[in-house]
């Protein structure tokens, strides 16, 4: 009976890939866990205290839809300093996920095409399908860098949006300044929206982060505090882009999320300005542990950013990951969760150095015995 109650859109996307891994994982007692997509460090003390203080001082009501004035103004000031005053409008969203949802609701019609780079963050594919649009994949294998000519060739008169994620989940690759410039110019020339998901921009190990928004006022930027301040449960993100688009996104926020969590908006103000450089150095070391440990045994790109590595498995990735989980209690995610190819697997190095070392040892031993 319930089948008849369900809206068609429940059938347009599924979450079975990742669920299968977590079902397998649930059977393990003490797994070596390299599957987690959130930082292994906690929120700065100043942020935790600011959140407690906000609750104690009764900041428990709604905030304005666009965010508590102090936080929104702070973000707007940062955006103005970077891109010039009056160019881009900013607001606070319920996580970067919330921001992505509002973007898709605001910009994408059923039947539209949305360009996604494969491998991709799973939510992009699901959100596009959820509104009855069609994801168009552009492969970035084998080195996970974007070929802008392929993007141009994929644009049709149905293309509405291109979603860029740099640094990238799950590959750890970063779009170069040239790619950012070319993509922004292409999007403008073709009058297609370019959405830039910059949630991992803090985690750049070898160079400066570049946003395509540097090259066009039309780029819509999604960002958030989950990863850089270790507060993924706080559900705080922000968006900046053209005034006309932001106003429409706020209309959807008003009737869905209403506002981002109030006390936590005040809490995160306590984190802004904290010196996070030691964390970045520690994560660069974790990246090196993975790369140096695996490079002689796997086809692997050195991650430039985020906290993921995406090596190629010696056999079908789903089979390799099954073996890793069931025979070695090592949790990693098969690439077919993030991709149309079942060739690579995702290692998250948001874990202790000891866990990373154990995981690397297991993977090397598995390869040696194949
Ligand atoms: N974008 C990317 C690429 C992500 O990996 C994630 C979280 N895994 C998000 C967005 C969502 O982040 P949040 O909603 O916690 O801000």
Helix residue percentage: 40-55%
In CATH, the topology of the largest domain is named Aspartate Aminotransferase, domain 2
Q: Unreliable runs, pLDDT <50, ≥5 residues?
A: none
Question: How are the strands of the largest sheet arranged?
Answer: 2-8-7-6-5-3-4
Instruction: Give the helix tally.
Output: 13
Large-scale geometry? globular
Structural class: alpha/beta
CATH architecture of the largest domain: 3-Layer(aba) Sandwich
The tally of domains stands at 2
- The Rg value, from CA coordinates, equals 21 Å
Strand percentage lies at: 5-15%
CATH H-level superfamily of the largest domain:
Type I PLP-dependent aspartate aminotransferase-like (Major domain)
Instruction: Tell me which ligands are bound.
Output: 4'-deoxy-4'-aminopyridoxal-5'-phosphate
Can you give the mean pLDDT?
96
**DSSP, total strands:** 12
Structural write-up:
The chain is α/β, with parallel strands linked by helices. The protein folds into two domains: 2-43 and 276-368, Alpha-Beta Complex (Aspartate Aminotransferase, domain 1), CATH 3.90.1150.10; 60-269, Aspartate Aminotransferase, domain 2. 41% of the residues lie in helices and 14% in strands. The protein is built from 13 helices and twelve strands. It has helices spanning 2-5, 16-26, 45-56, 69-83, 95-107, 122-130, 148-154, 177-190, 243-254, 262-269, 277-294, 317-328, 353-368; strands spanning 32-33, 89-93, 113-118, 134-139, 159-165, 193-197, 220-224, 237-241, 308-309, 330-331, 333-334, 345-348. The strands form three sheets. A seven-stranded mixed sheet has the order 2-8-7-6-5-3-4, with helices on both faces. The chain has a three-stranded antiparallel sheet with strand order 9-12-11, covered by helices on one side. A two-stranded parallel ribbon has the order 1-10. Helix 3 (45-56) crosses helix 10 and helix 5 crosses helix 9 (243-254). The longest helix is centred in the last third of the chain and has 18 residues, at 277-294. The radius of gyration is 21 Å and the shape is globular. The protein starts with a helix and ends with a helix. 45% of the residues are buried. The mean pLDDT is 96. The structure holds 4'-deoxy-4'-aminopyridoxal-5'-phosphate.
């Amino acid at each position: 009976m319930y089948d008849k109650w369900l809206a068609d859109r429940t059938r347009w996307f599924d979450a079975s890939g990742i669920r299968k891994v977590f079902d397998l994982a649930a059977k393990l007692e003490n797994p070596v866990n390299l599957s987690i997509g959130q930082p292994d460090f906690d929120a700065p003390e100043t942020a935790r205290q600011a959140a407690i203080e906000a609750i104690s001082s009764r900041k428990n009501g709604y905030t304005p839809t666009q965010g508590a004035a102090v936080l929104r103004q702070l973000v707007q000031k940062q955006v103005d300093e970077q891109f010039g005053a009056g160019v881009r409008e900013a607001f606070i969203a319920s996580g970067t996920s919330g921001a992505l949802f509002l973007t898709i609701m605001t910009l994408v019609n059923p039947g539209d095409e949305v360009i996604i780079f494969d491998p991709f963050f799973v939510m992009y594919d699901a959100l596009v399908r959820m509104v009855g649009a069609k994801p168009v994949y552009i492969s970035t294998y084998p080195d996970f860098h974007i070929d802008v000519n392929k993007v141009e060739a994929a644009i049709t008169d149905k293309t509405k949006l291109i979603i860029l994620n740099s640094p990238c989940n799950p590959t750890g690759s970063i779009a170069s300044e040239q790619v950012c410039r070319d993509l922004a110019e292409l999007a403008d020339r073709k009058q297609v929206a370019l959405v830039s998901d910059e949630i991992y921009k803090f985690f750049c190990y070898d160079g400066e982060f570049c946003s395509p928004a540097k090259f066009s006022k039309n780029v819509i930027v999604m960002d958030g505090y989950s990863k850089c301040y270790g507060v993924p449960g706080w559900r705080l993100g922000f968006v900046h882009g053209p005034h006309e688009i932001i106003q429409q996104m706020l209309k959807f926020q008003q009737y869905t999320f209403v506002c981002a969590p109030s006390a936590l908006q005040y809490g995160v103000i306590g984190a802004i300005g904290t010196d996070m450089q030691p964390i970045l150095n520690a994560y660069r070391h974790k990246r090196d542990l993975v790369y140096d440990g695996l490079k002689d045994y796997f086809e692997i790109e050195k991650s430039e950013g985020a906290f993921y590595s995406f090596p190629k498995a010696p056999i079908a990735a789903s089979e390799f990951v099954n073996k890793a989980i069931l025979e070695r209690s090592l949790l990693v995610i098969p690439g077919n969760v993030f991709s149309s190819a079942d060739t690579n697997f995702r290692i998250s190095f948001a874990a202790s150095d000891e866990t990373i070392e154990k995981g690397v040892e297991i993977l090397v031993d598995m390869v040696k015995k194949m």
